[in-house]
Amino acid sequence: MTGLIGHAEPWREWRAALASGRMHHAWILAGRQGLGKAGFALAAARELVAEPGVPQPGLHPDIIVLEPLPANEDEARKRDEGKPYATKRNISVDQVRQIQHRLTTRPTLGTRRAIVIDPADDLEKSAVNALLKSLEEPPAGCVFLLVTHRPGRLLPTIRSRCRTLRFPTLTAADLGPLLARLAPRATEATRAAAIAAADGSPGAALGFVEQELGALHAIMLRLLHEGDEHFVLRGELAAEIGARPDRERQLATLDLARAVLVESVCTAPGPQQPRIIEAHAALATLTAQAPTYNYDPGLLAMEIGGLLVSAALPREAA
């Protein structure tokens, strides 16, 4: 992901700081999820710790990555086998303290050590307070790279000690060719739906392609423009989502519904715009609740469909 469009300016800033000899000790890599920030952090860390004439191993001892641990022993086995695995919700204070213990020693192969925290958004409160101590008194040669999707969630005392690299989202014109290259088997409708839902994030767009959102997108547009007096389209929406969708598909559906409303608000007639804004606010609340509450898929589909219908103009007004 480090070669994705939109990384040119972050690389320019990073390499200018590296060449200046006055490298800041802590950096925030900020931007939407799916922009390749973690890949950038690892590549930047390798540039940081590299020493002229010293062979650099693939698994570098001077690059420490702090990320959520597997959720349990079964998930840990999946990780060790190279399979997808579920993680714990937060990065714990014990993990931060283990890293801090390592920072009391000298780097192994050179004079610098990189600590990548991915994502810093997931640090539990006590872990943030522990990290702050290291940022206030950084060990010599240590550079912290904090990957964050929501920098506003970080404490002001953390942000004030870091230099920020911002990663821009991509335009639909950039995402289109990228998806055509990386997901050539996807239908045009699926790619169009993925671009609409991704909000400029290539990683999110690829994830949405895997969910095959083209048919869902078409049904949502009909709900918004035609209404659904007899609940036929809402039934089609529920069937397309599936009887037992996983969490990723449910969240992708919610993101797509919000994107459909955002796309429509600028071109909608004046009387329809407040309806769209109100429906979008309700969908945003529903999206925030979805990771916590175990919604019945059928009821969730009806709720999404109902909100889209609420944003549609009555036929007589249309």
Automatic annotation (TrEMBL):
Entry-linked Pfam families: DNA_pol3_delta2
Name under which the protein is recorded: DNA polymerase III subunit delta
GO biological process: DNA-templated DNA replication
InterPro entries: DNA_Rep/Repair_Clamp_Loader, P-loop_NTPase
Coiled coil (residue ranges): none
GO cellular component, one term: DNA polymerase III complex
